[in-house]
Design goal:
Blueprint (H helix, E strand, L loop, with lengths): L15 E9 L2 E10 L4 E6 L8 H11 L3 E11 L5 E5 L1 H17 L11 H5 L5 E5 L3 H73 L5 H19 L2 H18 L6 H21 L3 H21 L4
Parallel strand pairs: 3-4
Antiparallel strand pairs: 1-2, 2-4, 5-6
């Protein structure tokens, strides 16, 4: 078998497909591996009976290359010699079946032409033939070598496909990070304007209701209310945490290994901060931006669910 490589882990998608064939010693093995989204690693193997002895080894090899996802491995085997199996025929039993059939025909006076038993009929009878795996160590070693090489190439193909899709997901997620940051900047700039607008509305109301009160008192009251409003509606802390979460997402996207779960947690935190900003906002333009950011966060969540 080929030398085991030291794998370099980069960001990968959980979905992918790889297939390879390897031929040697008059034997040909085709291995295909398909992976789908799943929270944990789950490997299933579908292989011919002769290959069943290698199933645990196949699962181990797959787990060395894949950290998360559902992996379905399919193995097909062909041999020119067919020496993987030994087929034995129980000749005495065949003769006994034939004699029993003739006795039945004679006893019940069937037409002699009907006493011929077809080969097809005999093959369907119980215990006529037995099939056993060849226990020859050389045959097993040859099968394992061919299987290992086919599996190695199939896993290489699978990982390449997962990495290619992972790179595309990474670019999309980084793009979404940029969109969210742009929206946050707009919200941050709009916050003082919202306070000023509130002050203008409040001044108009107080002046209309308290026309007989001194202007100095009215101004003090207005400034107090505006200060309370600004404090209650302040989103400075949410914006700070939101930017920190976005920065963490960017860092994780540059890491290797299983990053999907950590991304999922951060995206939940991003969504929570955006919801809080929305609940504090009474400005129509800010609310529109919040709705847009929630849509972008949902896109991010959907993409992150496909990351290993």
């Amino acid at each position: 078998m080929r030398n085991i490589k030291k794998w370099v882990w980069v960001m990968r998608s959980m979905t992918g497909f790889g297939q390879a064939a390897f031929e040697k010693y008059g034997r040909r093995v085709v291995v295909s591996v398909r992976t789908l989204n799943q929270r944990h690693l789950d490997v299933t193997v579908k292989a011919p009976y002769i290959m069943s002895v290698f199933e645990d080894g196949i699962k181990k090899r797959v787990s060395e290359r894949i950290l998360r996802g559902k992996a379905e491995v399919c193995v097909l085997s062909e041999s020119e010699s067919g020496d993987e199996f030994t087929i034995s025929v129980n000749k005495p039993l065949v003769a006994a079946y034939v004699m029993a059939a003739k006795d039945i025909y004679e006893e019940h006076h069937f037409n002699l032409a009907d006493t011929n038993i077809s080969l097809n009929t005999l093959m369907r009878l119980d215990d006529i033939m037995s099939v056993k795996k060849n226990e020859d160590e050389n045959v097993a070693a040859e099968l394992k070598e061919v299987l290992d090489n086919a599996l190695s190439d199939a896993l290489d193909s699978l990982v390449k496909a997962r990495e290619t899709e992972g790179a595309a997901l990474q670019a999309q997620l980084l793009g979404i990070c940029g969109v969210i940051e742009d929206g946050v900047s707009v919200i941050e700039k709009a916050a003082p304007v919202a306070a000023q607008n509130y002050k203008a509305r409040l001044t108009k109301k107080i002046n209309a209701l308290l026309s007989e009160v001194s202007a100095e008192w009215a101004e003090i009251r207005i400034l107090t209310e505006v200060a309370l409003f600004a404090d209650k509606m302040s989103v400075d802390e949410e914006i700070t945490r939101l930017r920190s979460h976005i920065s963490s997402v960017r860092e994780i996207l540059g890491e290797s290994g299983a990053i999907g779960r950590r991304l999922d947690f951060l995206i939940q935190e991003i969504n929570r901060e955006i919801n809080t900003i929305g609940s504090k906002s009474n400005d129509t333009d800010t609310i529109k931006i919040v709705v847009s950011l929630k849509n972008e966060t949902e896109k991010m969540r959907e993409q992150a669910q496909n990351i290993e």
